[in-house]
Design a protein that fits this description.
The complex is a heterodimer of chains A (about 325) and B (about 500).
Chain A (H helix, E strand, L loop, with lengths): L1 H28 L4 H5 L6 H10 L6 H13 L13 H36 L4 H15 L2 H15 L15 H35 L2 H8 L4 H29 L3 H6 L5 H10 L3 H29 L6
Chain B lengths: L1 H16 L2 E6 L14 H10 L4 E3 L5 E3 L2 E6 L5 E6 L13 H13 L12 E8 L2 E6 L6 H4 L10 H7 L13 E7 L3 E6 L13 E6 L3 H9 L5 E2 L7 H5 L4 E7 L3 E6 L5 H5 L1 H4 L1 H9 L3 H9 L3 E3 L22 H10 L6 E7 L2 H15 L4 E7 L1 H10 L4 E6 L6 H8 L13 H12 L3 H18 L2 E14 L2 E2 L15 E2 L1
Parallel strand pairs in B: 1-10, 1-11, 15-16, 15-17
Antiparallel strand pairs in B: 2-3, 4-5, 5-7, 6-7, 8-9, 9-10, 11-18, 12-18, 13-17, 13-18, 14-18, 19-20
Helix pairs in contact in B: 10-12, 11-13, 15-16, 16-17
The chains are: A mainly alpha (about 325), B alpha+beta (about 500).
Amino acid sequence: MLNYLLQRLATMVPTLFFVSVLIFGLQQLLPGDPAIALAGEERDPAAIAYLRAKFHLDEPLPMRYWYWASGVLHGDLGESVRIQRPVSDLIVEKLPVTLELASLAILIALAIGLTAGVISAVKRDTAWDYAANVFALWGLSTPNFWLGILLILFFAVHLGWLPASGYVSPFEDLRANLAAMIMPAFVLGNAFAAVLMRHTRSAMLQVLSSDYVRTARAKGLDERTVVLKHALRNALIPVITLGALGLGDLLGGAVLTEQVFSIPGFGKLIVDAVFNRDYSVVQGVVLFTATMYLALNLLADLAYFLVNPRLRH
Amino acid sequence: MRWLVLAAAAALASAAHSQTLRIGLAEDPDILDPTMARTFVGRIVFAGLCDKLFDLDEKLNIVPQLATSSQWSPDNKALTLKLRSGVTFHDGEKFDAAAVKYNLERHKNMKGSSRRTELAPVTSIDVVDPLTVRLNLSAPFAPLLTVLTDRAGMMMSPKAAQAEGEKFGAKPVCSGPFRFVERVAQDRIVLERFANYWNKGEIHFDRVIYQPIVDSTVRLANLRSGQLDFIERLAGSDVAGLKSDSRFKIDRIVEIGYQGITINTGKSELGQKNPLGRDPRVREAFELSLDRRALVQVAMDGEAQPGNQWVAPSNRYYAKSFPIPKRDVAKAKALLAAAGTPNPTVTLMTPTTSDAQRIAQVVQAMTKEAGFDVRIQSTEFSTSLDLADKGQFEAYVLAWSGRADPDGNLQIHLGCKAPLDYSGYCNAEVDELISRERATLDAASRAKIFEQIAAHIEKDRPIVYLFHRHWLWAHTAKLTGLRTVPDGMVRLQGLQMK
């Protein structure tokens, strides 16, 4: 297990290097001069020249990559040109928001997706199954921004139960925090629940038809134990992978949902930074997110060990 | 009984004094340093944070703020300002002539300053006495007082500015009605009442929270659900729905900027390769094929004032001899025939905002009737600026947020080799006239020079001006004392909740 862990950690180093080159390289493909985009409406030539010099925009690409990469290795992700704050500060500020939103969304997705998936598989070809499929189709085909605005209009404007948008820290006011997060988390979780439901259903159908489940039934175990203890545990393996990938996606920022609900997370940060050509922010946040993604995949692999005893040997 | 009444009165007074004003912004401001700041939305926050030497009133008159009066020297090359006494910065430092000198020099000299060109004619600043300062100019410069009503006139605490340097914007210290508390990027900027504000009788809120909410529907939903008291830039399409709700009020102001179509007449070779950039008759035909009133109705839901100059027809410097031309498709066709291009093709570069897209589509449809084949090239905003800067466009739908003095809408776009001269327009006579209007302090005489400039611009048409947008503000009907100044800033003095 330890060897496996070390091996996996070692492969992360070249991956991260490749990711850093890719992030840096792709960003250079963005059309538009960042100094012009940042110089504001007046675009004073002296201000543009200053920005070019300050952010090494007038130097060759390999040198610029070196400045950035060596800074990263020393723990310095650079500074936002637009608001002149260190990128690491912005990440620290946004990470808890994005983590909370992503975790709540995954919880909602798991609660809905797993339940619907299991019911749909166990009650195959019944009204329950069809209803779960309709639900999955609805979740997959509903655009986030549309559902978000509908929820805002209904729960915030019409009923006045929930705040329309914004974010309150849970340490400031937990109740207000949950009230602000429930709608965006549901919007995100809803789409992901549909995917989870479809995967859980197929995995469950496969497992339910396997020999050991038949044996369990033959032993006289009640259906509840067969489904929940024997079948679901095995069916969970692909679902865990999917959940980890989904969480990784959500940590990268749920761009539209954060925009609609004005949640100050990673997605909103990256979108604003791209439009303003705030290179350091885009590079820093994407690199951080990629690292998180790799770490989550590693965690998912470790979780297999816990779920599936065969893998431990 | 008397105790009860007193207690109730105290409770009411306390409630009145613990009020928070929540303002929804359309974007997240950039750095909160008046020297470095570059965005329109940032100026809205500065209105609560940093007082300026002068301010503007609803009719764009210059009124005192931190400076109480101004006096030009006989040769108009020096401006003496008398300063308000008893003003302190948020950190307790005293506001005086030395602070003004420090601030103006910082605006002029700091690396990366966005105020440098605005104050370019100021060569030196003399402290005459603690409450008098003299600005020495290289040449007379009429727009200077107006420049001092914006960020170049904002005063920061010299002590804080020296200590923080480039980081000043992270925790700005000025002398405005509210002091900085915190900023969570893309979430909120919180200010609280400054107890020693020189004009504190006009301040009726304890805190102001600015919240950037980009989506206009969500911004409005926040207002409707009572989470915000005020929103700026209400979408024109939402006006009708909100008007019928008595809980809210809508205010509209004609902006000091404009929306226009910039034509590449000489920025690059491309300008001379297409008939629109090459031949003034084709540009005249293009303009004659437009019905600005219909354009405003369709593209802006009626929320703009049609215009054909760099200032709106309601502005005192509007050249009245050149009114908005009426649509004349027959004449446009005749002009195109005379130019030998009855069906010119024009690529219209258009930012991806919904307003710009709608404008481009309506212009496309209108000009088609005259024979134009307008091809819309939707381009992300930063990219479009870059292409415009390189002259890689034929025509460009571009808005300018505007400056209170007409010179700020003119020289920077149409002066020879000016920073925003995307058209590549260069007319020595216009440059000469701009120099003259800058050196003329008398408003009536300046207006005459602007008439002469308009004669050139209306003939050459490097920019086809279309209209002047309305700043649309929506707020709870309980909010009173709002001043609708055309610069679009939300002034907090006098605002209160009834």
